[in-house]
Automatic annotation (TrEMBL):
Belongs to the dGTPase family. Type 2 subfamily. Residues 69-217 form the HD domain. It comes from Saliniramus fredricksonii. Keywords: Hydrolase. Signal peptide: none annotated. It holds the Pfam family HD_assoc. This is Deoxyguanosinetriphosphate triphosphohydrolase-like protein. GO terms for biological process: dGTP catabolic process. CDD domains: HDc. GO terms for molecular function: dGTPase activity.
Length: 404
């Protein structure tokens, strides 16, 4: 590991001076690298601001201390920068990818995405990664010269492929996309600006993906404890967590619960970050990549958990799934949110002029697939509170969405 505070860029890092460029050519900035420019465009986008009122697990108004998509995204970006710095990767690209990774998420978290996926099943489906690509290449309409943010190839590649290749060497969908196929929005853009869908993404994108997992584990434990869905003692069912709690209790016997929770979550992040750095350094040394393309061409990701921490990550997720995401209190709210999204979709499919003019214009005579795509774009961009207001606006029986 490099000395604290030392910034460097390894040969296998993406170099902004050698970017593959943008779909629409632009003059270089005299004050920022291309990746810094991407990061800044993402931060200033409307979609990024809307993350403030989009749900993680709890609806936005449940409490001031629960995470939203925005606070989660900021936590992911901090972890991604730390990992990139330790591994000699480009911090600005890793940060841009972390900041953009949730731009395609719907209101009401995964509940909204599941509902929209079902609604869109006859029209090509809905996928939040594909939606994020649509946001940054089409739906953001701020610049005079183009739609979208006109991000660099490296940022777009990482946004689409941060979870791994989408196609195998024969051009067939990888297991993740085998059932429904690669989303049409990704294939259509790839035809314009080849993102090399059969390779892994850059090390920076792999860093952003692991940072997302680490942030999820830590903050979902924190939020679940604060919500009273489980206790610290319940979490001892996870050996990794039990060990961290033992460390805390040995050092600070009788520590008050709020501090004990914070000590636990910070240790989850620290242990996981340190493990990813050590495992990734081992993999990078074995691969000896000469450049960023060697990372992409590797048979497996080079940024990863060790086997022991991969098991700990799996154990945390296996615990949280039934005890948080499927907790009876959360399920009640999820069902209500699911109904809101489905009823909004059905209403605007039947009456597209009920959407604002910029969304509904020209849809009265449009065929069903085009209408569905526009309706899905509109709903996906909603915040939780906007979706609730829109549902009330169509005369729906709108629930409060409170976890009782």
């Amino acid at each position: 590991m490099r000395a604290f505070g030392e910034r460097w860029r390894a040969d296998y890092a993406c170099d902004p001076a050698r970017t593959r460029g943008r779909l629409v050519m632009e003059d270089a900035s005299p004050t920022r690298s291309d990746f810094q420019r991407d990061r800044d465009r993402i931060i200033h986008s409307s979609a990024f601001r809307r993350l403030k009122h989009k749900t993680q697990v709890f609806v936005f108004h449940e409490g001031d201390h629960y995470r939203t998509r925005l606070t989660h995204t900021i936590e992911v970006s901090q972890i991604a920068r730390a990992l990139a710095r330790s591994l000699g990767l480009d911090e600005d690209l890793a940060e841009a990818l972390a900041l953009s990774h949730d731009l395609g998420h719907t209101p009401f978290g995964h509940t909204g995405e599941d509902a929209l996926q079902d609604c869109m099943a006859p029209y090509g489906g809905f996928d939040h990664n594909a939606q994020a690509l649509r946001v940054v290449t089409q739906l953001e309409r701020r610049y005079a010269a183009y739609d979208g943010l006109n991000l660099t190839w490296e940022t777009l590649e990482g946004l689409v492929k941060h979870n791994g290749p989408l196609l195998d060497d024969d051009g067939e969908p990888t297991p993740r996309y085998r059932e429904h196929g690669v989303p049409g929005a990704i294939l259509a853009f790839d035809a314009l600006f080849d993102l090399r869908l059969a390779t892994h993404a850059s090390g920076e994108a792999q860093v952003a993906a692991l940072a997302d997992d680490i942030a999820y584990n830590a903050h979902d434990i924190d939020d679940g404890l604060r919500a009273g869905l489980f206790t610290l003692e319940d979490l001892r069912a996870i050996p990794f967590i039990a060990g961290l709690l033992d460390d805390i209790d040995d050092r600070w016997p009788g520590l008050e619960t709020a501090r004990r929770i914070h000590e636990l979550t910070r240790r989850v992040i620290t242990r996981m970050v340190e493990d990813v750095v050590a495992e990734s350094e081992r993999r990078i040394a074995a691969l000896a990549p000469a450049d960023a393309d060697a990372i992409r061409a590797a048979a497996h990701p080079v940024v990863a958990f060790s086997p022991a921490l991969r098991e700990a990550d799996r154990a945390i997720k296996n615990y949280l799934y039934p005890n948080m995401y499927r907790h009876r209190k959360v399920i009640t709210v999820r069902r209500q949110a699911d109904r809101i999204v489905r009823e909004l979709f059905a209403h605007f499919m039947a009456d597209p002029q009920g959407m604002p003019a910029e969304w509904g214009a020209g849809l009265a005579a449009a065929d069903a697939p085009l209408r569905a795509l526009r309706v899905a774009d509109y709903i996906a961009g909603m915040t939780d509170n906007y979706a609730l207001a829109a549902h009330r606006g169509i005369g729906g029986d709108t629930p409060e969405l409170r976890i009782g």
